[in-house]
Amino acid sequence: MRLLIVSDAWAPQVNGVVTSLRALVAELEAMGHTVAVLSPQEFRSRPCPTYPEIPLVWDLWRVGAKIEAFAPDSVHLATEGPLGWSARRWLRRRGLAFTSAIHTRFPEYLHGRWPWLPLALGYAVIRRFHAPSSAVMVSSERMRGVFAQWGVSDLALWRKGVDNGLFSPAAAPEGEAVFLYVGRVAPEKNLEAFLDLDLPGRKRVVGDGPQRAELQARYPQVEFLGYRHGEELAEAYRAASVLVFPSRTDTLGLVMYEALACGTPVAAFPVPGPLDVLVEGLTGAMDPDLGEACRRALTLDRHACAAWAQEQSWRYSAQQFLALQRPLVEAPLGGEASVLAD
After folding, report:
1. Which of 37, 52, 131, 187 could pair covalently with 47 via S-S, beta carbons 3.0-4.6 A apart?
2. Whole-structure pTM value
3. With the C-alpha atoms ordered 315, 320, 323, 325, is the resulting torsion angle positive or negative?
4. Inter-CA distances, 286 with 198, 281, 296, Å
5. Per the database record, which ranges form the Glycosyltransferase subfamily 4-like N-terminal domain (predicted)?
6. How many CA atoms lie within 13 A of 51 on its CB side?
């Protein structure tokens, strides 16, 4: 099968969406499928205001020609950004089917930054984007319920996984406890809820983003390490006593999978995301008091964390994704049954 994934999020961006999509592409190709990603790398773009690491494509008139040139059997819209909207418009005008996914709770993010923007308005946009989709993929049953309450239809479960070859356990770290955060350093991640805690050990932050300079100046006792990739990232997890996940708005949180695969337990608030990933008292501790969750997580068995993560496969995730795909048309674009003519 020839699969086209349209995504405004792609390398060199570092986030859970990119991690998921790169793992998906690798698994689909290993299964014998031909996959292309239509990303900002194929276009001209400008940095997103307040998030310069996120490119916003502007020469969107080229999207249709690129879709047609690849001649896909199936198209998946991974993001609700400019590329996603442009591809959606082009496909709908030709009566072509597609699937989509909700990776990010943008209405909550926007409402958190600009409280005068009502959540209902943000979800009206989300509903409109995904309404024509034959399957709107979400990462957990809990998030399916959340989005259904906001009127999103045709929701389908697409679970995520972890690279157990890269993220693997080692001997437990010795010495002073290390509490680690991994992710974007941005307001929606609620990082200050972690940085303000009085904990028995050191705090480290792996990642970057628009808040880094401000938070690094305000919390000089915290180690800000910037981005880490590959084996360096795995080593950061292994060297930590606890991964602290302070976000209240993530749809999942792949960093929790990665930490657990390295044997590192997780502390979090009892909210969607952690509630869908963690097994209380086994792989993590969840509490409205994040500091209490951190202290409880210190006592958990690292072997049990790694054993749980071994069962989370990217291959199974890719198979779920594949089962939800729908044929674009009776034949691939450019074939005899093409319906591209206006």
Report:
1. 52
2. 0.83
3. negative
4. 17, 9, 9
5. 14-163
6. 16
Residues 290-321 have pLDDT tens digits of 999 999 999 999 999 999 999 999 999 999 99
Q: How far is CA 225 from CA 129, 228, 257, 317, in A?
A: 37, 8, 20, 31
Quote the crossing angle between the two packed helices 106-113 and 119-130, to the nearest 10°: 150
- The residue to which tokens 């999020």 are assigned: 9
Cα–Cα distance, 174 to 89 (Å, whole number): 55
Is it true that domain 2-161+315-324 has CATH number 3.10.300.10?
no
Q: pLDDT for 130-184, tens place per residue?
A: 999 999 999 999 999 999 999 999 999 999 999 999 999 998 888 999 999 999 9
Residue among 64, 148, 132 nearest 99 (CA): 132
Rounded distance, CA 133 to CA 144, Å?
15
Quick one: fold of 177-312?
Rossmann fold (3.40.50)
Structure tokens at 156: 């389908």
Q: How many residues does the chain have?
A: 342
CB 237 within 8 A of CB 265: no
Evaluate whether 2-161+315-324 and 177-312 have a shared fold. yes
pLDDT in tens, 241-277: 999 999 999 989 999 999 999 999 999 999 999 999 9
Q: Where are the domains of the chain?
A: 2-161+315-324, 177-312
